[in-house]
Amino acid sequence: MGTTEQTLHFPLDDDGFLRRECSLCKREFKVHLTREEREPPADSVRKSFLIPEDERRGAEPKEEGGEHYCPYCGQAAGRDSWWTQDQVAYIHTALRNIAAQLVNENLIRPLKRSLGRHTSGPVTIRFEGRELGQQEEWIGPEPNDMTRFRLPCCDREIKITEDWSGRVHCFFCGFPHERALG
Predict the structure, then answer these.
(1) Is residue 62 within 8 Å of 54, Cβ to Cβ?
(2) Do the strands 176-177 and 168-169 form a parallel or antiparallel pair, or are they unpaired?
(3) Is the pTM here over 0.85, yes or no?
(4) Which end of the chain is more exposed for a tag (fewer CB within 10 A), N or C?
């Protein structure tokens, strides 16, 4: 069987920031993406939703590409650990649609053609299969919310909620910065 690929587009706000979510504290923030980060290879999304072979065999997972840090709680996690619930739902819908398409093309339709109604001697075989339906892949537009926060340690920017008054950890290196409210 061949490879099936589909490009998913995640909405950015008007300033080019992508919404992220910490899996520990569940707070959302936004990260400004470089041009290279806006067009990741197709394998990036796919790999973050597949279980690597060594993990299935019980080996320790290997972290590819380093870690990032939650701006609020400082929790470290792999680069593909920051999906929001809406992004996960969007990805799962796309994956279900790909699976439905593959089942329809490689199982249901060929069986209908070959076994639709087959009579052989005294035995009659009848196959009535319905194709699997697909859902619309949709993710809402990204609102222009949150406040910009400059990360001098890595010369990058993130956006955090307006009401956050604690330390702000750099998403890229984890360095804690004091937030001056004013």
Answers:
(1) yes
(2) antiparallel
(3) no
(4) C
